[in-house]
């Protein structure tokens, strides 16, 4: 790098730190979170709130920089917003949920926090991911501070238990995965991800692992047992049924259908004709693969979703071979998945009639825009974390360099549009906090990989792996075994 380039990078970074500082939200004089965006030029809508999922990258940066107070305040205040009683009114949030976002309002001359569980949000979407991210963040706080006392407080133990209660509750569904409505996560608009979307399953797995570490108090034995039962089933299910590589595609392509009973191989009765198998045949590199977007009855969503795949690597849900194969895919299909702005939220876009039917003609989610295969710089920190975990840091370095050349100049847009990600998102906010922190955090993780354990998990305990492997034993892909 030339000297003047170095100076420029420093300027961009300083500007990013300043923008992050400007986004801090104060409540009764204490910092409690960051605003989604601080862009005075457009109507705020709900971007002047602190979103739980958006705050994760801010929080990790604060933890790295030793500003643990903000994260602690955030965890304490959001825990207070969690309903502790059963809702009698079905329109009210259920016990244990963590809101999508919150803001500071004034009531009788006093500041109070107002939560949004999706009841105010566009399309009234449910924030299933919030309680999962909250748990992951609580565990990151413990790792960063080595201070267990916060998580061991009775209110926190109760909060964790309530989250586990909704996640592990009896339900109609008989899969180890979580059944959720459309728009229950980062993609919070209708995008055909209802059912068992990868993003939620990976966050669920990660949150179960976090809860397993944190639930230590007496009286939690039953929940701990339930977690121990669920983890291997969930792990085996995702590794086996979500995995797509050329071997697996071959097997699916020749699947028999309408199999009834215990000996069925095509468990979900997937019809090959529902898959874009010729496109995948061309697109899948020899040594590449990824976890599918969704699996359900006669459903295999073959879209690539970045958050789920990257976090599956970080949380150790993907096996080592699968993790390397996902990174191979990103490397070999760089133009499609990273292009000129890291990185696409999903690939490929829904187009034509499919776009109209699946999104409900959503003008914000037109093909190659926003959630429909737009590019989101926030995903860069997850790419960096996955790259560190798989020892493929050069991929993340390349991505950071690409982003660095544009983000500051473009004033930190929320997302980019286009097949290569060259267009600033049609309705993107500027000074979007998680764009800023996604960039800063990616840089921190690459500069000092010792920060990875904040968010990553060690190898699964041997008994979990062997139980998960039992499920995988009749699989056809060599990537499934470790
Ligand atoms: C959009 C995104 C959502 C994010 C929110 C605030 O709705 O889809 O993931 O939390 O903006 O930035």
UniProtKB/TrEMBL annotation:
Gene3D superfamilies, alphabetized = 1.50.10.10
* Catalytic activity, reaction form: Hydrolysis of terminal non-reducing beta-D-fructofuranoside residues in beta-D-fructofuranosides
Q: Name one Pfam family in it.
A: Glyco_hydro_100
Name the enzyme group at the top EC level.
hydrolase
| Entry keyword set | Carbohydrate metabolism, Glycosidase, Hydrolase
One GO term (biological process): sucrose catabolic process
Stored InterPro entries: 6-hairpin_glycosidase_sf, 6hp_glycosidase-like_sf, Glyco_hydro_100
Gene Ontology terms, MF aspect: endo-alpha-N-acetylgalactosaminidase activity; sucrose alpha-glucosidase activity
Enzyme Commission no: 3.2.1.26
Q: Which PANTHER family match?
A: NEUTRAL_ALKALINE INVERTASE 3, CHLOROPLASTIC, PTHR31916
Q: Which family does it belong to?
A: Belongs to the glycosyl hydrolase 100 family.
State the protein's name: beta-fructofuranosidase
């Amino acid at each position: 790098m030339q000297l003047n380039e170095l100076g420029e990078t420093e300027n961009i970074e300083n500007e990013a730190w300043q923008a992050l500082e400007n986004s801090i939200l104060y409540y009764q004089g204490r910092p409690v979170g960051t605003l989604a965006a601080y862009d005075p030029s457009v109507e705020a809508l709900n971007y002047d709130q602190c979103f739980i999922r958006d705050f994760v990258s801010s929080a990790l940066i604060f933890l790295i920089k030793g500003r643990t107070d903000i994260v602690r305040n955030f965890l304490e205040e959001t825990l207070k917003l969690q309903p502790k009683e059963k809702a009698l009114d079905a329109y009210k949030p259920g016990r244990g949920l963590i809101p999508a976002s919150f803001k500071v309002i004034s009531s009788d001359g006093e500041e109070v926090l107002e939560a949004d569980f999706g009841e105010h949000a566009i399309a009234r979407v449910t924030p299933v991911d919030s309680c999962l991210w909250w748990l992951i963040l609580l565990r990151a706080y413990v790792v960063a501070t080595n201070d267990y006392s916060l998580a061991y407080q009775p209110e926190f133990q109760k909060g964790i238990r309530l989250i586990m209660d909704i996640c592990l509750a009896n339900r109609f569904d008989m899969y180890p995965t979580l059944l959720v409505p459309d728009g229950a996560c980062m993609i919070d608009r209708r995008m055909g991800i209802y059912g068992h979307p990868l993003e939620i399953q990976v966050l669920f797995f990660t949150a179960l692992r976090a809860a397993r570490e944190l639930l230590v108090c007496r009286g939690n034995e039953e929940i701990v047992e339930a977690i121990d039962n669920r983890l291997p089933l969930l792990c085996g299910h995702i590794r086996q049924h979500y995995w797509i590589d050329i071997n697996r595609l071959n097997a699916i392509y020749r699947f028999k259908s309408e199999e009834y009973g215990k000996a069925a191989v095509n468990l979900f009765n997937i019809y090959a004709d529902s898959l874009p198998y010729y496109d995948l045949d061309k697109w899948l590199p020899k040594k590449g693969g990824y976890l599918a977007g969704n699996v359900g009855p006669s459903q295999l969503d073959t879209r690539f979703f970045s958050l789920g795949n990257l976090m599956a690597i970080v949380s150790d849900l993907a096996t080592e071979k699968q993790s390397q194969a996902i990174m191979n895919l990103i490397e070999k299909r760089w133009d499609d998945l990273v292009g000129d702005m890291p990185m696409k939220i999903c690939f490929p876009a829904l187009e034509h009639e499919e776009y109209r039917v699946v999104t409900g003609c959503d003008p914000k989610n037109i093909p190659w825009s926003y959630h429909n295969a737009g590019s989101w710089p926030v995903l860069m920190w997850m790419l960096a974390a996955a790259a560190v975990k798989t020892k493929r840091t050069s991929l993340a370095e390349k991505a950071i360099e690409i982003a660095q050349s544009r983000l500051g100049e473009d004033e930190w847009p929320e997302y980019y549009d286009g097949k290569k990600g060259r267009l600033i998102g049609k309705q993107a906010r500027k000074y979007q906090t998680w764009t800023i922190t996604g960039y800063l955090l990616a840089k921190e993780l690459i500069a000092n990989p010792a920060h990875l354990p904040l968010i990553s998990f060690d190898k699964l305990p041997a008994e979990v792996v062997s139980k998960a492997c039992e499920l995988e034993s009749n699989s056809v892909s060599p990537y499934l075994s470790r």
